[in-house]
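Input sequence (277 aa), recorded before submission:
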Amino acid sequence: MKLILLNKETKPYFAGLYDESLYSDHDSNIITIGAVEDNRPVGVLLASVFLTDIAIQWIYVDERYRRRKVASSMLKALNKTLSKIGAEACYTFFTNDAKGMSEFAESQGFKIQTNPGWISYESTLKTLVMVPKMPGDDFTLSSFQSLGSNTIERFNLEMLTGSSLIGVPLRIDPQDFSPFSSCSIVDGHISSLLLVQTSFRDGRSVIDIPWLYVGSDGAASAQAMYNATLKALQSSFPPDTEIHFSSINPALDRVITKVLPRAACKELYMAKYRYKG
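Predicted structure, token format:
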């Protein structure tokens, strides 16, 4: 088996084995490892790196090559690469219907954690409705892509030093998210933020809302951003477009449970591995 790092030249060779919306040529904090067997691409692992934290965002192996140590080989290659930067911990999230993921993670030394608040919702645009307006939600929302670099970097530093939320994106860059992402600004600071990603999978568009951050504006801004985003998405995509919400912080959960039944969710698990130096 041959393992290679994906770049602009090699990534077309692995097309179809990973969600291309997660890959970024311009982001040096993304590490993507590809596996080749029998002169064909058989697996991809993609991870985000920020300081001493590593988040595995994608790991996939061609069904014909599973149980042949492809995934474990890619993890070992990641481990070897990250040990050079002094990584302390690596983690990934998966849903309770991810077949064999829990057993595989534990076999590689990961510890499985869960929490009643970690859930994932899957729905379609046509089934979603607006949430009722709240007093104080008449503020102006801004496009995340329109913000200056200083505002974004200040927010990244504020989240790094002031937040302990599991699931906070390791580094927020407008180029990694859809123009449908929105935020509210107070005194030059990002007060609330809703991130949106769109991709094309199996011939269809898919929408992901990975994170909702709510600061001083509180619940009113969360609902206003949800309503504005839903209205824009419903006017731009077909009604049967899939939409996924990864609810690993209470702010997003409080909004989504108003429009989707709890029965529509899947439980999220976190697999975490601590490096030993």
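Checked by second reader. Residues 2-87 form a domain with the Aminopeptidase fold (CATH 3.40.630.30).
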